[in-house]
Amino acid sequence: MMTQQGTQEIPVVWLQGTGCSGCSVSLLNAAAPRVANVLLEELVPGKHVQVRFHPTIMAASGELALEILFDMQETEEGYVLILEGAIPEKMPYIGGTTGEGEELSIVTTFTELAEKALCVVAVGTCAAFGGIPAAAPNASGSKPASQVLAEHGIETPCVNVPGCPAHPDWILGTLVHVLLHGLPTADDVDEHGRPRAFFGQLIHENCPRRADFDAGKFASHHGEPGCLYELGCKGPVTYSDCPLRQWNSGISWPIGAGSPCLGCVEPGFPDIGSALYKKISADQLPRIERDETTGELKYVAPASAPCSEPSE
Amino acid sequence: MARITIDPVGRVEGHLKIDVTVDNGEVKDARASGPMFRGFEQILIGRHPMDAQRLTTRVCGVCPAVHSVCSSLALDQAIGVADQIPDNGRIIRNLILGANYLQSHILHFYALAALDYVDPAAAADYTGDDAGLQQLAAFLQRGEWAPFVPRYEGDLCLDKETNAAAASHYVRALDMRRLTHEMVATFGGKMPHEVGCVPGGACEVPTADKAASFLGRLQDVQRFIDECYVPDVVAVATAYPDYFEIGKGCGRYLAYGLFDMDTTETDLMKRPRYLPSGALNGQLGAVDAQAITEDLKYSYFQDDYSRLHPSEGRTEPQADKPEAYSWAKAPRLNGEPYEVGPLARWLVAYHAGDEKVKPAVDSLLAALDAEPAALQSTLGRHAARALEAKLVADAMAEWVLELEPGAPVCADYELPETGSGTGMVDGPRGALLHHIDIEDSVISRYQLVVPTTWNVSPRDDEDKPGPIEQALIGTQIRDEKNPFEVVRIARSFDPCLACAVHIIDAKDKELGRYRIV
C-alpha cells in the first residue's frame, strides 16, 4: 500500500504469546534508528514499517483491537508477522474475546496470520526456541514459532532472532535486511535459523576477558577481575555478537558487568544451560587440536549444548 | 443489564481481561482476570538456588530489576549473608532498582496511559518549531495513523495547546525512557534483564567514570521529570477533574518500602528504607508479614491450599473449578484486600509523616486545589507516580556519588544445602514478595506474591472483591461502546499481568457468554 506521499507502508503485526514483554521493551531501547523514528519515519528510503497491532503500544483495546487482526486476515496486503513469547498450546486462550463472547486461541490467531504473512520473525528466545515458558515441566505447553508452523504445515519463512531479551539491533537489522534485500537465504542463517550477521561468532572469540582465560586468570567470586569461566560463563559455547555490539547504546554487556554469560540466545535455554552458574566442562570448550592421522591442526567447535548436566 | 468484556485491555503489560456488568449506566459488578500462564513456580522447583535469581528476573520485561532485587533479598537470607551486603552492593542495587523505577513510571504515563487522555492525531496540522511535533505531523500527513487509531472515541478534552505539548512529550519520553535503561545497564550490564544484582550484593565494580555516565543521563531525565512529566500530570488532572472522583478502590494500602539505607537489620520490615513500609487501614500500622495469605476460592487452584502464608502455599491447578474465574490468586493481609503501588507507598509515607513525601504531596494538592482524600482516585495514582519519579531521581543523584571504587561489591559465601528466605520490597507496581526453600542444595519451594496479584485479585474466600474490581464497581459509564472509564481506571493501577499470573488459563466460558446488548 502506498500513502499520499509515495511511501510504501509495510504493515507489521506483533503478537505476544507466553513471554514477559521484555523484547518489546528492548526494541524501545533502539539507539539508531531510535524507536520514534521507527514508528513515525521511513525505516529505509521509501518504506515505512507500520505497526498495525502491538498489544503494548496500540491505542485500541477489546473488540477494536481484534478487528485489526480480522482485517489483516482478509486483506491481500503483504505484512510481516512478529511473534514475541512462545505459543502455549495447552492453554491458548490468550488471544482476546470477541463481541460474541468467543475466546480466541493464540494458536489459531498465530497460524492464520502466519499463513498469509510475507515472513514470520520470531523475536526473543521464547518465540525462537521456547525459552523459559517451555522450560521443564512446561505446564503451558509452550512451543517455538518454527515448531508450530511446521506442525500446521505452514511454509511461510521464519527467521529466529533469539535473546533474553533480543537486542534491538538484531530485531531492526533483520527487518531492514528483509526490506532492502528480501528474505535471508539459507547461507544468511545458521542451522537454528538465526542470522549469521548477529549469531555467527562465539562470545568467547571476541570476549575482552579472553586474554585472562588464555593466561589462566579466573575470577572465583562475583566482583573479581579475570575470566568468568569458573563462575559458569557460557561464553565459550554461545554464538552472539554481544561483546562487539554491547547493549543499551553500547554502554555495557553482561560480562562487562562481571556476570557470567547465561547462554540465553541458544536453543534449550535455560534447561540445557542449567545450572546457570555451573562450570562447563573442558571438553566442551572450542579449541585447536592436532589431527592424529594427518598431523594437521584443526579447529574443534564447542559442543552444541551449553552445559549437558543438570544442577550439581 | 449489559455485560462489557474488554479483552485484550491494550497498553498494559501482559494479557488482561476485564468484565463489567452495567445497569442504567452504572457498573454493578466487575471481574478482572489474567489468562496467561508460564508456571514460574513449578519451573524453579529442583533447580539450582542461584538460578532462581536470574530466572525470576525474567518474570517481567518491564520491571525485571525488582524481581532481581527481591530474589536476591530472599537468597541473602537463605545463604545467611543478609547483614553482610557491602555498601557498594547495596547502593548498586538501589541504583539499578531506582533507574528501573524511572523507566517504568515514564513508560506507564506516556507510552501506556497518555493515549487515554492525549490525542496525538490533533498534531496533524502542526506548523511550529517543535522537532517532535514536526516529526509527528509529517507522519500523520502521510495518512496512515496506526497504532494511534483505532481507539475509544468521544472523551479526549485537553485544549489544543496543552494537547500539543503533551504529544511532543510523548515523543520525547521515548528517548528519556531509553536513557533510564542505559542508566540501569551502566551498573547492570544490560536491560531488560540486568545482571548486575546478585545474591550477596552486586557483581559490577563501580568506577568514577561509570558514576559520571550514570549521573549525566540522570540529569537529562531529572529535567524531563521537572519540565514535562510532573506538569503534564497536573495538566491532565486539571482537564479531567472527574477522575479525582472515581476509581477509588478498596481504601486499604500496603507498602513494604524500598531502597535499603543500611543492611545490618535482617528483618526487612524493620530495615531502614528510603520509602517506609506500612499498612494503612484507617490507621497506619506495621506490616505483619506472617498475616499475609492467599485465598483461592475464585481462583483455578485447589481449595485445600487456600488462606495459607506463601511459605506454606502451594500452586495446584484445578481448571474445572466451578466458582473460579481467575488464574490470579487473591492475596490478603489479615484477611483484607489491600491496594499496592505508588499511591499506596505515598499514602503510607504521608501518614507516617515522612519529611520528603509530605511537603511534595501538600504542594501538589495546593496546586490542584484538592484535598488529601482526592488522592484515592484514578488521577491520584498518576500523581503519586509522577511525584515518586521526581523523588527517586533526585535521591539517586546523591547515592551514585556514595559509591567507593575499589571497595567490595559482594559478600563471600558458600551455598547452604538447606535454607529458606523471604524477600520483601516494593517494585514500581507495589509490594513484592519472593519466598525460597532450599533442600538438598536445590530449590524445593518458590512462591511469588507480586504487586499486580494484589491489585487484580479476584474475590476472596469471603467474597470480597479485589482492589481493581472495587475501583470499577459503582462507576458511571457514559457510552458502553466507548468504555473510557473502565480502561482508564484499570490502567491507573499500571497492571502487569506478566507478573500476576503464574498459572494456567482455561477457557472461561461463564464470563465470555455475554456481550453488550
Give a structural overview.
With 312 residues, chain A is α/β, with parallel strands linked by helices. Chain A has two domains: 8-198, NADH:ubiquinone oxidoreductase-like, 20kDa subunit (Rossmann fold), CATH 3.40.50.700; 201-312, Cytochrome-c3 Hydrogenase, Chain A, domain 2, CATH 4.10.480. Chain A is 26% helix and 13% strand. A five-stranded parallel sheet of chain A has the order 2-1-3-5-7, with helices on both faces. In chain A, strands 4-6 form a two-stranded antiparallel ribbon. In chain A, strands 8-9 form a two-stranded antiparallel ribbon. Chain A is globular. Chain B has 517 residues and is of the alpha+beta class. Chain B has one domain (2-146, 157-512): Cytochrome-c3 Hydrogenase, chain B (Orthogonal Bundle), CATH 1.10.645. In chain B, the strands form six sheets. Chain B has a three-stranded antiparallel sheet with strand order 1-2-3. In chain B, strands 6-9-10 form a three-stranded antiparallel sheet, covered by helices on one side. In chain B, helix 4 (87-113) runs antiparallel to helix 6, helix 4 (87-113) packs parallel to helix 7 (208-239) and helix 4 (87-113) runs antiparallel to helix 10 (378-399). The longest helix of chain B is centred in the middle third of the chain and has 32 residues, at 208-239. Chain B is globular. At the A-B interface, strand 1, helix 1, helix 2, strand 2 and helix 3 of A face helix 1, helix 2, helix 4, helix 5 and helix 6 of B.
